[in-house]
Amino acid sequence: MRAVVRRAGKLICDEIDERDPGPGQVRVKTLACGICGSDLHALHYLDHMVEMGRRAGGGDSLDPKKDIVFGHEFCAEVLEGGPGADRLKPGTRVVSMPINMSAEGFDAVGYSNKYAGGFAERMILTEALLLEVPNGLATPQAALTEPMAVGVHAVAAAALDENSVTLVLGCGPVGLAVIAALKLKGHGPIIAADFSPRRRKAAEAMGADVIIDPAQTGPHTKWAEFGVPSTLAGMQAALFGGQAYGRPVVFECVGSPGVLQSVIEGCPPKAQIIVAGVCMEADRIEPSLAINKQLDLRFVLGYQPDEFAQTLFDIAEGRINVDPLITSTIGLDGVAQAFADLANPETNVKIMVTPGL
């Protein structure tokens, strides 16, 4: 079958061998698959990603020197089941958490040497994890369940109170997913900041209340407008004066060196910082500054199974609008160029790959 293969640090559209579904697995036809920011990182930094995963206790199942077919944000159609996999009829459209389970262990769909990801015409998936697409939800929108669940998980991890003011730094797909999840929970006001005009426009479409161009205005200049003291002295005065205000929460969705330190420097005292952006390089922060400001620093990754399932249904019911994210659709032959194009935030927000094109 045709697939886009990462080989020697490059993306090559090629014919690859196809596995048969094992017990509890199904063969599916890939209908649509989004290109994720982690795919962009993995093209060039896969060795580093594997090493970080190993150091975190994730094992050594992935060999970055061998062929890999990316793609973990997908919607697919069931073709046939392996032994014991007969719950879903052929033709059923499904989404899934990108995990494959077999007698050999666990594999991450899209980051595996054994199983092809969504940048292939067909995949092998675990039937027990498949969720049928409900309510006639369109295929590209269903494929965005995975990245939107990332935002849902980040918001669930935040210590938001009823009057919290939030700042979302970086309005790529992760930041936009966070904005959508905040709106879903009824939280506001939401301040969103990004250097890209296209991304700022998308943030507004997703429901951000205040949009900031950091080239013109510092992203931390709006706290006082919502009654949040920006200094320790201001915080003490508010406390002694009986002034109540919502806890400030910053979602760092950029993932570039220096950003986390800039948040520590600029955010209000006693703020919580949720780190959802993946910085692929060593970074430096000043813990003593964070200690003096009594900041709460929390790192988040992925989502829980219930969050993934609920996100699918929230999209299908119209409670999460993913339409502003989808900006282009391409076939397998266009994937390599799309990776290059996504380096420029003005060209696209989310590119969907349709192997059948």
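(the above was protein one; protein two follows)
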Amino acid sequence: MPISRVIRSLLVVALSVWLQVIPGAHAAGRGVADHPSSQAPATRIAAVAPAATTSAASPANGVPDRILFIVASSKVHGTSTIPASVSFGEVVNAWDTFHAAGYAVDFVSPDGGGVPILDAYVDKDTRPRLEDARIMTGLRNTARPEQIDPRRYVAVYYVGGSNAMYGVPEHPVLQDIVMQVYERNGGVVSAVCHGTAGIVNLKLASGRYLVAGKRISGYPEEHEEQDADYFRQFPFLIRKTVETRGGSFHVVNGYEPHVEVDGRVVTGQNYASATPVAEAVVAVLRARAARPSKASASKG
């Protein structure tokens, strides 16, 4: 075959291949949103819907620098008609601290959707934040536990408010999420005020309670109005339950902040402790990030 004919044949083959490849290249350039099933990599975490994101500077998907806020759905105390609420300031003050430190925040609740925020749980300093869409969008659209991928989080933060006593502590999916963050991710478990109720049932893979042998703080029953109707609805007592399960419970008298840091468990006593708890979580996360990579996630 004359060499000129060989060259022409090769050119035809090359042109055909080029015409087939170019449309694919153009499609890829349009991004994953146009073709989610064909363009997404095999390792893409997309089996569950993402939680409501509140940070304006959210990191890229797959980057493990997110913190999961766990809030309660209950609008009443137990089986009564006594209103219950999330503590708005415990959301805002911790959110501000985490956001300033560069972390993104997602919200989850037992029922998903909006959570109750009563006026009594909103002080004059945080009231303007009811207009802050970054926070309110998250609180009005919390994820359901089944929508959460634990691999995305470096820490969890249990928000207080009297409704934290109901629905959260006994929720098995929330428990699984938190223990995956703690044991598999080497993450931090934190709680403030009545939010400590959320950690009393958590168990390690060994079957040992998370609080066993640890210094824990939270809102103690001796500071409650024990003759009030709401208190009679409580399904358990925070201090008593922590101590029964092997924890050492520590509080101070009055309304001053008090925080206990024991390994990767960070707990605060009261409303005033929300910011210090968040600051302590950031400090623990940064200290762990600075350690050699061989550090064991199971330690602490």
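Reviewer note on protein two: Residues 52-290 form a domain with the Rossmann fold fold (CATH 3.40.50.880).
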